[in-house]
Every structure is written in structure tokens, then in C-alpha cells.
Automatic annotation (TrEMBL):
It comes from Achlya hypogyna (Oomycete). SUPFAM superfamilies: alpha/beta-Hydrolases. Residues 108-318 form the BD-FAE-like domain. Transmembrane segments: none annotated. This is Carbohydrate esterase. Keywords: Hydrolase. GO terms for molecular function: hydrolase activity. It comes from the Eukaryota. InterPro entries: AB_hydrolase_fold (IPR029058), BD-FAE-like_dom (IPR049492), GDXG_lipolytic_enzyme (IPR050300). The lineage of its organism: Eukaryota, Sar, Stramenopiles, Oomycota, Saprolegniomycetes.
Length: 378
């Protein structure tokens, strides 16, 4: 009888080892594919760099991306309610995974859709993740929360590093806005009232696509479709708006045994340090640009990932060149403004939405009777 029990257990153990082996091989394959993509992107942008150095850099950046994704899992363990809400959103099959282009990351989700009643204001939310991590699935709570307030929300994927660099990101954001303009009315959206918003690196690329569009229009070299005229308000959360400043800041910050700038996808995503000014919104602002009539920048005063000086300098440049802007300083760190937008930070949520919702629902800036533009502080 004992021998029979042992024989019964052996097939189970063999199947378990096969399953574990399959999972291991799958993850090794995905790792190699990611290394290959990173290597190819680095060779395209830095052809003078040796093959060995490029391969080592590809391995380091790939490890950074994978550890970042692991960090998302650890973060989720500390926010079980957010995890439950995120998982629940995956069953919304009717309004998930609209394609706006041919790439695997050219997909977006809609929240707060309606077939009847008045048109709803639209928010296009651009996720962050150090220009390299996460996807729309992690940000479903943004759309869920805004839908409670009668807002149609677009939460999109786009080509982050190593699927693409900053120019690919900008191309994708233009396509996201164009898809929204063409399709939001079918789902109850008011395309005359679109707010573009982003968190962290998402705030950077969202502001950058607006600046680039406005600069082309000012130079009378616009494309057939431009983003800037379509956006009524811009809301940035905890954004790095100057690549030179942020690179210098990261060079003083450590992540484990590494200097942050040495492993951050910032450098390769922006084509190297020599190109940072081209992709720094703070350095691109000019007078009389056709930017959204309402711009609001939220930032935590205790942010140690992106210092609040980034927002302050961007706001200062905008004001200096005649563009109205409001700065909302929050008593928190880097991720809390996003959690408030998701409805997951009870301490900030009420005051955050008191500033955020009026921008989205009925943008009016500058307020009547106010000639100057002053920062507000919560």
C-alpha cells in the first residue's frame, strides 16, 4: 500500500516540475526578447557605442524594467483594495482594448461611457513609470474614480522603453488624442472639452506633446492633425519637466547600490544628454504659444523621486512667457497625487478633487477679475 501511494505521488511531482520548468523557460524567453529589443533600440540611437558596451547596457536597463515591474507587485501587496478594483476592471470587455495603431501597445480602455444624456467631459490619462514601466491595466482605478463624477476617461498604453523612445511616445500620444477626437462622441464624450493629464514621466511626455504641437503651429509648419488645439486643459501630476535638471537630480540619488541616473531609462529614451533640451518642456516655452487655456500642475512638497522644483521651474517659464498656470502644492510625496486621483488616498482625495474636478468639468481660466496668476497651495 505504501508503494502504491508513492507511485501515485510521483506523477503529480513530475507534472509540477514540468509546470515550473515551463514557467521558467517562458520568463527566460521574455527576458531575452526584452534584452534584444533594448539592444536594438540602443544600437539605433547610439551607433558609435561598442557592441559589448551596448549589450551590457541593454542587460542593465532590462533588469531595471523587470525590477520596476516587481516593485509594482510589492506596491500592490500594500494596497489590496486597489488590486481588487484593478482586477475587476479586466472583466469590462466591452470598453477594453480599443486599438489605435498596429503595435502591441497601441491599445486603450474607456471608462464612464454612456449612450444617452448630455455629453461628458473627457480626460486622457497618460501613465508614468520612468518612461519604461507599467501599462494601462495598472491605472484602471483612475477611470473608475472619474466615472463616478460623470467623466469619460481614456487610459492608454503607448510605446515606452524599450518598445520605443521619446519620439515614438510622442507619436503615440498624438494618435491617442486623434483616436479620442474621432471616437469619443460614440461613447458619450464631449470632444470640445478634453483634458490631457499624466503622472510622473506621463506628465512629462503629455506636456511635451502639447509644447511640440504648439511650436509647430506657431512656426506655421503644423501637421494635418495637431494636439494643442484639441486640448482644453492640461493637468500634470508630479512631473519632471526638465531633463537636464532631472538627470542631475538622479545622479545624486541612489537605488540600491546604483546611482539612479546610471540605470534610469531617461538617458536612452531621450537620445542621450546632448538631446535633453529638445525634450524638456521647461526649455521649449516661448511667448504666444497656442497652449491650453488652463494648465494646472500638482506636486507633493515631500516628493523625493521628482523634486517639486521641477514643477516650480516649469510654471515659472510658462508665466514668464505669458501662459497662465496654477500650481497646487500637496503635503505628500510622489505617488500620493496619483492615489488621490484613483480614490485611494483618503487624506488627500477631497482636497485633490476640489481642485481637479472644476478643471475637467467646466474649465475657466484665468478667473474673471484676476489679472495676475498666483500659485495656490493646499
Amino acid at each position: 500500500m505504501v508503494a502504491g501511494a508513492q507511485l501515485a505521488r510521483r506523477p503529480w511531482r513530475a507534472s509540477a516540475w514540468k509546470l515550473l520548468g515551463t514557467i521558467a523557460l517562458y520568463n527566460i524567453w521574455n527576458h531575452l526578447v526584452l534584452v534584444g529589443r533594448t539592444f536594438g533600440l540602443l544600437r539605433r540611437r547610439f551607433p558609435a557605442q561598442s557592441l559589448v558596451r551596448t549589450f551590457v547596457a541593454a542587460c542593465i536597463y532590462t533588469l531595471t524594467v523587470e525590477l520596476g515591474e516587481l516593485g509594482n507587485i510589492v506596491f500592490g501587496m500594500g494596497h489590496p483594495r486597489l488590486v481588487r478594483r484593478t482586477l475587476a476592471s479586466s472583466f469590462r470587455l466591452r470598453t477594453n482594448d480599443f486599438k489605435y495603431g498596429p503595435h502591441e501597445r497601441h491599445a486603450l480602455d474607456l471608462f464612464g461611457t454612456t449612450r444617452s444624456g448630455s455629453r461628458r467631459p473627457v480626460v486622457i490619462f497618460i501613465h508614468g513609470g520612468a518612461w519604461a514601466m507599467t501599462n494601462k491595466f495598472h491605472y484602471a482605478a483612475v477611470g473608475q474614480e472619474l466615472s463616478k463624477h460623470g467623466v469619460l476617461t481614456v487610459v492608454a498604453n503607448y510605446r515606452v522603453f524599450p518598445h520605443g523612445d521619446v519620439e515614438d511616445m510622442l507619436e503615440d500620444l498624438e494618435a491617442i488624442v486623434q483616436w479620442t477626437v474621432e471616437n469619443a462622441p460614440k461613447h458619450g464624450g464631449d470632444v470640445s472639452n478634453i483634458t490631457l493629464s499624466g503622472h510622473s514621466s506621463g506628465a512629462h511626455v503629455a506636456s511635451l506633446v502639447l509644447l511640440k504641437s504648439a511650436l509647430r503651429i506657431a512656426a506655421k509648419s503644423q501637421k494635418s492633425f495637431e494636439v494643442a488645439p484639441r486640448i482644453k486643459a492640461f493637468v500634470g501630476l508630479s512631473g519632471p519637466y526638465d531633463m537636464d535638471d532631472h538627470y542631475a537630480f538622479e545622479s545624486q540619488r541612489r537605488i540600491a547600490v546604483f546611482r539612479a541616473h546610471a540605470i534610469s531609462p531617461l538617458h536612452p529614451s531621450m537620445h542621450g544628454r546632448a538631446q535633453f533640451p529638445r525634450f524638456s518642456p521647461s526649455q521649449l516655452v516661448l511667448k504666444n504659444l497656442p497652449l491650453p487655456r488652463q494648465i494646472c500642475l500638482f506636486h507633493g512638497v515631500d516628493d523625493v523621486v521628482v523634486p517639486i522644483s521641477s514643477t516650480q521651474r516649469f510654471a515659472s517659464q510658462l508665466r514668464e512667457h505669458g501662459t497662465p498656470v496654477e500650481v497646487v502644492e500637496l503635503p505628500c510625496g510622489h505617488v500620493e497625487p496619483l492615489l488621490a486621483l484613483m480614490g485611494e488616498d483618503a487624506a488627500l482625495q477631497e482636497s485633490f478633487f476640489a481642485s481637479f474636478l472644476p478643471l475637467v468639468q467646466a474649465p475657466r481660466w484665468p478667473p474673471s477679475g484676476h489679472a495676475g496668476v498666483l500659485p495656490s497651495k493646499l
